[in-house]
Amino acid sequence: MAVLALFLLWKIRGKQSRFDRLPPGPAPNLLLGNLLQFNIKEAYKYYLELSEKYGSVATIWLANTPVVIISGYQALKETMIGLGEEFSGRAIYPLLMKSTYGYGVLSTSGHRWKEMRKFSLATLKNFGMGRRSIEERVKEEAENLVEMFKKCEGSAFSPADMLLNAVSNVICSIVFGQRFEFEDPQFKSLLRTVNTYFAILSSPLGQIYNIFPRLVSLFPGKHHELFKDLEEAREYCKCEAQARMNSLDPSSPQDFIEAFVLKIKEEKDNPKTEYNFDNLISVIWNLFSAGTETTSSTVRHALLLMMKHPDVQERVQREIDEVVGQDRWPSTEDRQNLPYTEAVIHEVQRHMDIAPIAVPHKMMCDTEYNGYVIPKDVMVFPLLSSVLKDPKLWKNPNCFDPENFLDADGRFQKNYAFVVFGMGKRACLGEALVRIELFIFFTSLLQHFTFKAMVPPVELDTTPTNCSFGRMPRTYECYAISRK
Ligand code: HEM
């Protein structure tokens, strides 16, 4: 008995000393940590309050797990960029693990992540990400989207699924080498899974699951359905990969999967290779899911903000009419001549603040920062919200105001505090694609339609539905009134 007591004491002491020099934070409860001290539906607001009270590095405890919150541009720059290697790990977030099992690019760390990130970036670029070739694909999808919206003229409709479909087809054409029809049952099922996945990730259920995965698994709920759908989505990715194993022409891989399969074949005699089926399936899922939901919900939110601010919508349309007119489709070359539109798109993203804590990181090794020591494997939340809503960095941080991205002469003005894609080594690897997609989809839609809500603008609610992992914007019904 005495030996057991001593052993426990030694264990507890060991744990304490490992965490002795963590940054300060509110006193945790022994069992639940700080969980009872905030509203889990809007956790990031509590993190913002902590940064005001404790400064740019603070610690909270989610049950018995410490999490270090980094806030403010300077501290994020010093950690995510200055100590980029140390802060480059990805936290083991149970819901992320459910879709990737520790493989792929988004939820891995160290050598595996580096290899997958390098390959993914290079291959996306080879297939046109950020270049003219992908712009043509985006334009085709934008033209289809406009046709679909036209069919809804005269009645109120929800644009959410059509936007999801159009945006997803862009990444699908890179990853799977094909686009899908709106009614394709396989595609519909994949999109439904992505949609539910993000909704649950950003909901209180997702938060609680990430803290107590085993316990929550014991209870019935939407998460079980999601896990089943995720397995089916993985199975689909696996079949696509296997089909290419036989059909691949090594001299000219046609899509991302083929390029990866080629690499698997090339490295088959390397026992340490990361090019295997497990990584391939998870990378496919990472690109497909990250490339679908975020961008489509940004366009959805942009249209909602246009309905809320008809004066802004009108000014964007005026600018498009003057520069592009009605006789041709917008192209990224028009971007430099559409400063107001560019400012609006950036402001939509800043205001939306879709990933308030980015995707949680973890420490790769014990690291000293600002006089504190953050031990290896400790979870880190880069609080992007603290930068995107910092009153010292933006004229009107809590309102939707395109002036935030315009200089005194009405020219588009970049702002270093625009950190919606994260900072440093783990920053979003799809940014170049997103920039093209947002511009082409938004300008094509506003060139053709005026969006009107079913209620007067003052009554429109533009706050997100869920605000945990992500701040997911609302779905809504609207009118798209043709401008021609
Ligand atoms: C509006 C659109 C998007 C936004 C706001 C966004 C934002 C982000 C953020 C905040 C992160 C995490 C950064 C961090 O961990 O510090 C991230 C990671 C990532 N994003 Fe995006 N993203 C968007 C679209 C896309 C697209 C279209 C793709 C696919 C081509 C993509 C692929 C990824 C991947 C693979 C990662 C993980 C990178 C890594 O762990 O190294 N994202 N994104």
How would you describe the overall organization of this protein?
It is a single chain. The model has no long low-confidence stretch (mean pLDDT 92). This protein is 51% helix and 9% strand. It is built from 17 helices and eleven strands. It is an alpha+beta fold and 484 residues long. The protein has one domain (2-482): Cytochrome P450 (Cytochrome p450, Orthogonal Bundle), CATH 1.10.630.10. The strands form four sheets. A five-stranded mixed sheet has the order 1-2-7-4-3. The structure holds protoporphyrin IX containing FE. Residues 90, 105-106, 117, 171, 286-287, 290-291, 294-295, 298, 354-355, 358-359, 382, 420-422, 426-430, 433-434 line the site of protoporphyrin IX containing FE. Keywords: Heme, Iron, Metal-binding, Monooxygenase, Oxidoreductase, Signal. Residues 1-17 form the signal peptide. Pfam families: p450. Belongs to the cytochrome P450 family. Its cofactor is heme.
Topology:
Layout: H1 2-18, H2 43-54, E1 57-62, E2 65-71, H3 73-82, E3 89-90, H4 94-100, H5 110-126, H6 132-151, H7 160-175, H8 185-201, H9 204-211, H10 213-217, H11 222-247, H12 256-266, H13 277-308, H14 310-323, H15 339-352, E4 361-362, E5 367-369, E6 372-374, E7 379-383, H16 384-388, H17 431-448, E8 449-453, E9 466-467, E10 471-472, E11 478-482
Parallel strand pairs: 2-7
Antiparallel strand pairs: 1-2, 3-4, 4-7, 5-6, 8-11, 9-10
Helix pairs in contact: 6-7, 6-17, 7-13, 8-11, 8-13, 11-12, 11-13, 13-14, 13-15, 13-17
Bound molecules: protoporphyrin IX containing FE.
Protoporphyrin IX containing FE binds next to α13 and α17.
